[in-house]
Design goal:
Four copies of one chain form a homotetramer.
Chain A lengths: L4 H7 L1 H8 L2 H7 L5 H28 L3 H28 L4 H5 L5 H16 L2 H24 L11 H8 L1 H18 L4 H27 L3
Helix pairs in contact in A: 2-11, 4-5, 4-7, 4-8, 4-11, 7-8, 7-11, 8-9, 8-10, 8-11
Family (chains A, B, C, D): Belongs to the TenA family.
EC number (chains A, B, C, D): 3.5.99.2
GO molecular function (chains A, B, C, D): thiaminase activity
Chain lengths: 221, 221, 221, 221
């Protein structure tokens, strides 16, 4: 009785698999991804993180009590104090300095996904915001797992290993599990009509994540 | 099965009766209310209407489809195109010109209620906003009914009759019934935990309405 | 002394011309645009209008006084009470019934532009929201003018004439001029640093409008 | 040339002094404040802090770049990770356990001030939010200074010393100075019309702070 995140994923199984096992992900695992694609992705992902941090700031605002507020603040701190730094360091290794990130024009795919998430948050309540954020936070944990377990994955001497390790890292996986528990507790008590709304949000967000991978692939063509 | 607005009212019956049958309302019906109290109330109610209009603008923004959007826009138009004009005309009859309304300092009671409603809207979803608005829109229709049916009510030759008639008017009563139907349809499918949240919102809004009446009474002392 | 809308346009002249004179617009004027492109555009423009209406609802909320609030409400009413109806009627003539519009999946280009505008509104103040909306409201008036005055334009017996006339209509042109005056009055007193921010918003919104045309063209390929 | 925070304070000097030197503050310094007043204030201040934290979450959302975002996040962390804990510990010393804080009904004065600040933030841009927050963050630093330097202040063996020390603490004073610099930099470039808007916001927020002290005093009568 009651819904959970797995029900959301099952309700848009095709879109979810298309995202998790996207060609960008497959090529990244097989170490055949063009560096140009990856570099373009990395740069846009920096802009993505800024709006992602703003979204968690919004989640802090929308919290109904201190428990919810602390949960959102933890995610916000993880992004700004940890991920952002890892990302900037990682970009540097790929020859992208922080200055150049500041002047970067934002790709339409970045705009579309990030502003969609923020609008879900403003229009709906905290749960709508979390559901819109889930394909990113929880999806990346699953992407890292999928790559790791996939037979075609090349595990040594690949330029992408550090990126994969970032999302396989126990801290990250733990944050993803924590978020999943939060969602499961809330989804357990929504009505069927409300669940339909959330499916739409989750599906749109998942598709926008796929489009974000695709943007990376397209940069090389 | 499922909740409705009457359940919200019953859940905070004491606060609701204290609001509907507030001394301000009783004295207004019995035509014993001091004109100073009424004039202070009228002026602050003008400021209230501005923020009330802003709240319905927010409801337009938060709508999930065109049916919801048109419902909110109808309320917004009622306030700005009808009630606002009636109110300004009514103030004029009481010797309060429109210019003086513009420079009016906002009372704490006006600030508290209006900004509370707006925050409910931003923090939650459209339903939270509607529930926070309900004591005003639906409550005033009930206040007008209560005054009318009350044995102590003086019905002729009272300076307050025009005000009472404004809320007994079929157009207003119809808007209140329309809103009640909208709420009943949504409340029917919320979970018990969610209903608890909405009770808190409804009770706080009801108390803030009472404080708004009290502000009127206090102005005369 | 002081800035005006023309300064915003001049600051991103290339992007503005690329939008106003986009191939979609040229082909529409020359009546060489594929009907498939136009139909795709029309359908997405319906979804666009819904979010555009939400944006004007947000503008009502963000207003600082009744003059600003009425200005925003006028635009909101124009969209919902007039344009929306024209659009649905117009879609019908192109064989697109209202039902099919309700189930339409939202293109990334529609998502990107509409949610960008809404985020500009939430993040900044009323002026940021208006600047993000300007390429649409004011741009379409200019697009209609440009088509009309362009030597290659075919003026009789073209399926697109009714669409062009909708934006050449005096009511629409007047709304665009009214908005321009509102913007000119506000831009007159912003600081250079603030103007830089607004240029970025205006440029991004203009590019997203171009991408919206391009989406139409791409639908036919 | 250009405005600064001192200009805001000077523009509502009477309201500012009435707040900084409020009877609640004077009695607190002179150790003549009734414990009932202080206890009521302390409890409501806990609820205040929650909404204050939400306001800084909103500031994170409204930030235009990572520098602004980190500035807001620092304030948010100070409140949630430091002040909140100090406050709960401090309440405990006054016999108020954390459980009882959770069920506390919110006073109108708390509602009025906190929701006013949040609405300033949503309606305007980041600067409006900061200006609405300034009487609290910067005002408390000044209150602590004023108490300390006032000849009637009793400095030993008073139940209020720990509270005063909390705001005299170098960490708190530093946060207040940091915020003042942020405001001075932004105010330097606003137009006279904009500055007028900000004066209204600052004055209203200052008056709402005074009303918050008054609420404490009234609790003992």
């Amino acid at each position: 009785m009651g819904y959970c995140l797995t029900d959301l994923i099952n309700a848009c199984q095709n879109d979810w698999r298309a995202y998790i096992e996207h060609d960008f992900v497959r090529q990244l695992g097989a170490a055949t991804l063009s560096e140009e694609s990856f570099r373009h992705y990395l740069k846009q992902d920096y802009l993505f993180l800024i709006h992602f941090a703003r979204a968690w700031g919004l989640a802090v605002y929308k919290s109904r009590d201190m428990t919810e507020l602390r949960h959102s603040l933890d995610s916000l701190k993880t992004i700004v104090d940890t991920e952002m730094g890892l990302h900037i360091g990682y970009c540097r290794e790929w020859g992208i300095d922080e200055e150049s990130l500041h002047d970067l024009p934002e790709a339409h795919e970045t705009l579309a996904y990030t502003r969609f998430v923020l609008d879900c948050g403003h229009r709906g309540e905290l749960l709508d915001l979390h559901v819109a954020l889930a394909p990113c936070l929880i999806g990346y944990a699953e992407v890292a797992d999928w790559i790791t377990s996939h037979p075609q994955t090349v595990t040594s001497d690949t330029p992408y290993q550090a990126w994969i390790d970032m999302y396989r890292d126990e801290n990250y996986q733990q944050a993803a599990r924590r978020e999943r528990r939060w969602l499961d507790a809330r989804l357990a008590e929504v009505s069927p009509r409300r669940f339909e709304q959330l499916i739409t949000t989750f599906r749109d967000a998942t598709r926008l994540e796929s489009a974000f991978w695709q943007m990376g692939l397209d940069a090389a063509s």
